[in-house]
């Protein structure tokens, strides 16, 4: 088992994935299945960055995240709010109140702030009959900074593993810092929008 996890084995596996003729479809399938079993989307995005690099990995991750989100949205639409609320132990009802204004900004905030799992947000949006266009646009806008930061960080992490270097540490740290600032700014704007006098 340990032989499967050494540096050379992982690199060979990643190279084989990159050379697949249908690599983009394979990436979409990973996100689709991962969404159905509620795998953390951060891990899937990081895998895309490590395998395909920061930019192509970001494109695949964005496409995969959006397709997974739309698939789960459709499942939520079919399941309905009552079924989903029972299945989630009441979490769906609380999250549904966050979607009450039915705007793009709401989805952007939910993508940037870790208030609920990625798949649960998608299911609840569908069950709440959140407007599909707003949902798709909000998901794309909210996921862009998350995906870019994580794919850059994961790609540099692979370099750090093979060759610890100050530049790799700086870029990886800068990616996390940029994401942290985006989350902080989003949280402040969200708080001010809810409590203008705060």
Task: Briefly characterize the structure.
This protein has 198 residues and is mainly alpha-helical. The protein has one domain (2-192). 80% of the residues lie in helices and 0% in strands.
Give the end-to-end Cα distance, rounded to a whole number of Å. 55 Å
Helical percent range? Answer: over 70%
Average pLDDT = 77
Order of helices and strands: HHHHHHHHHH
Number of strands: 0
Features:
single chain; 198 residues; mainly alpha; 10 helices; 80% helix; globular; disordered N terminus
How does this model look, in words?
With 198 residues, this protein is mostly helical. It has one domain. Helices cover 80% and strands 0% of the residues. The protein is built from ten helices and no strands. It has helices spanning 7-18, 23-36, 41-52, 54-79, 81-87, 91-98, 104-112, 118-127, 132-162, 166-194. Helix 3 packs antiparallel against helix 4 (54-79) and helix 4 runs antiparallel to helix 9 (132-162). The longest helix is centred in the last third of the chain and has 31 residues, at 132-162. It is globular and about 50 Å long. The N and C termini lie far apart (55 Å).
């Amino acid at each position: 088992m340990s032989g499967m996890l050494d540096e050379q084995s992982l690199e060979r596996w990643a190279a084989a994935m990159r050379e697949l003729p249908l690599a983009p479809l394979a990436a979409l399938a990973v996100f689709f299945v991962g969404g159905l079993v509620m795998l953390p989307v951060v891990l899937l995005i990081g895998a895309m960055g490590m395998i395909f690099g920061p930019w192509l990995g970001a494109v695949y991750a964005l496409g995969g995240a959006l397709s997974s989100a739309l698939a789960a949205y459709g499942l939520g639409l079919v399941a309905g709010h009552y079924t989903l609320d029972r299945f989630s132990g009441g979490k769906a009802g609380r999250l549904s109140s966050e979607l009450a204004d039915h705007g793009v900004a709401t989805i952007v905030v939910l993508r940037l702030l870790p208030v609920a799992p990625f798949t649960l947000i998608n299911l609840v949006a569908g069950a709440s009959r959140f407007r599909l266009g707003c949902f798709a646009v909000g998901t794309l806008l909210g996921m862009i900074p998350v995906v870019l930061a994580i794919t850059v960080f994961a790609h540099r992490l692979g370099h750090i593993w093979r060759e610890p270097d100050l530049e790799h540490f700086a870029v990886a740290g800068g990616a996390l810092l940029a994401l942290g600032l985006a989350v902080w700014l989003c949280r402040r704007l969200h708080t001010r929008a809810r409590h203008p006098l705060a």
